[in-house]
Amino acid sequence: MMNKFKKCTFCGHRWQSRKDFLEDATTEMIGYQVNFDNLHLGLFLFNHLVCGTTLAIPAGVFQDLYNGPVYSERLLDTEQCPGYCVHENQLDPCPAKCECVYVREIMQTVRNWQKNV
To answer: pLDDT tens across 65-109, in order?
Structure first.
């Protein structure tokens, strides 16, 4: 059987490609679990609205959706950091010029992806 982009761990639904997954009106981004050791291994969390399960996909899978600046300094626990990354359900863009900001920008792209109705 061909390898698919993602399979729902509960109902078994399969998405052929990342594009299919992002365009599916039955998927909704609900969170982000940061991995400060390797930002690409942080997890974007999605609900599959058909069956109610939560799916996790490494942030690195979406890395190519961002082409802006990547900062080298982490601003966590500084005055410039609003602490969004440590709150799993906080999906807003971050104003800090921090190494984590590109992941938050990718989140905005994913959240605003045009869904098929």
So the answer is: 999 999 999 999 999 999 999 999 999 999 999 999 999 999 999
Q: 91, 111 in Cβ contact below 8 A?
A: yes
Interval 23-38 mean pLDDT: 97
Q: Where are the domains of the chain?
A: 15-111
Beta strand 27-33 with 14-15: parallel, antiparallel or unpaired?
Answer: unpaired
> Do 46 and 57 touch, CB atoms closer than 8 A?
yes
Report residue 94 as tokens. 């971050």
DSSP E strands in 1-117: the ranges are 6-7, 14-15, 27-33, 43-48, 53-58
The CA distance from 55 to 98, in Å, is 27
Q: What is the pTM of this model?
A: 0.93
